[in-house]
Design goal:
- The chain is of the alpha/beta class.
- The protein folds into three domains: 267 residues, HUPs (Rossmann fold, 3-Layer(aba) Sandwich), CATH 3.40.50.620; 123 residues, no CATH class; 53 residues.
- It contains 15 helices and 19 strands.
- The strands form six sheets. A five-stranded parallel β-sheet has the order 5-4-3-11-12, with helices on both faces.
- Helix 4 crosses helix 6.
- The longest helix has 26 residues.
- The protein is elongated, with a radius of gyration of 26 Å.
- About 1% of the residues have low confidence.
- It binds adenosine monophosphate and zinc ion.
- Adenosine monophosphate binds next to helix 1 and strand 11.
Amino acid sequence: MPTKLTLYNTLTRKTEPFKPLDPTKVKIYTCGPTVYSSPHIGNFATYVYWDLLLRVLKFNGFTPYRVLNLTDVGHLSSDADDGEDKLEKGARQSGKTVWEVAKYYSAEFLRDFKKLNLIEPDVIAKATDYIPQDLELIQKLIEKGFTYETHDGIYFDTSKFPRYADFARLDLNHLKAGARVEFSSEKRNPSDFVLWKFIQPSEKHDMRWDFLDRPGYPGWHIECSAIIHNTLGEPIDIHTGGIDHIPVHHTNEIAQSEAAFERKLANYWLHCNHLTSEGQKISKSLGNGYTLSDLEEKGYSPLDFKMWVYQGHYRSERDFSLESLEAARVRRLNWRNRVARCYQEEQQNDSKTAEKAISFSEIIEPLNEDLNSAQVFALIDNTNYTNLFFWQTIESLFALGLFEGYEQESEMYIENFIEKTSQLASPILKKRAMARAEKNYAESDRLRDELKQYNLTVLDTPNGQIWQYIK
Ligand code: AMP
Ligand code: ZN
């Protein structure tokens, strides 16, 4: 009997059995990227972790329905509601319009999402497509008395929402004491946050909408509450994000949604930890915030990075380095070659190891314990007994391109890559078997070299020849 799925819930700080409201539509919301620059691998690691969540849910017989937002307006460069809008800043620096910047980086993000073989969200919601819904929600909060107006915007008064500090276990008194020195705005409480920002006559802000007879734009947090309300409806089952979202962004989402709709926003909150890179916090100035394209330029597949991500747990802090990526690449190559071997053996009807393969429950058990992929990986490395069905199961969970592949040269994702490869290799292997039978070793070596053009080599086993990937 397979185990039941348990997940660590930030809301309760406990690992709990997962019980969806409706198993045929598990409602999931993932806070997406701010599309003003190329995401670094730290950003992408989060979406890779949540892809495993979706696949493990499916494995447990649930049907996930997931919404992901793209923040294309209103994310200020500081969480304290000051600084410039990241999108407008990106536009100013690149000489493009803010709409062009958003379009360019959204497309880049979705392209890389595909390269990582991540399940496409059921809804991709652009923040700028939900402005009327933001305003409807803000209007509701105004009517219910949760807001106040200052010269630069409409703010949420966190003192009106008594549970404000609960989610992140915030110490509001400490927050107040710390803020006293710098705290000079018209905010009533340091934790208050902007729902709608007014554009001052002297200010250049290209994305603008009218509200209360003045131009303005939404604060960062409101979009997630408005999108969830309009695409999924409260409560949702699972809300995901990075740990940096706990004290501000998710705390604010809960306050504004639960104040407006008087329903719990989400039953389970999952947060992944951050990546450091080469021992340091990822930062542009240190140049350690690799993008997926950087890794591809160094000869790695995005799926090697995915392998690297799943070698650790989503709640552990991880340190990325090119050496550890290289180890993940070698491990993935090894697995692909094991799959290739199973594939060829089963084609020759010689699947002796089939009966002894690891059982389904051995794979799902660690995953059901809060997504422990690393344990499954160790299990795979430590067994010789696998068959094609086993690898298909592994592939459906981790989507590491063990059968399929992203071909860098043609920028194409190829399904049944293994079948195509086999079709290429088989005639050459046949000719080589004949050459060897005739003891024509020069021809046999030439044929081995011929395989190289397809990044393949040949292994001579007691049961005959097997093609293997070189990289
Ligand atoms: P952003 O585009 O800044 O909104 O971030 C997108 C996602 O990346 C969020 O879920 C963040 O929590 C996450 N994130 C940002 N920096 C890191 C990092 N160094 N490691 C892992 N995740 C990160
Ligand atoms: Zn969000």
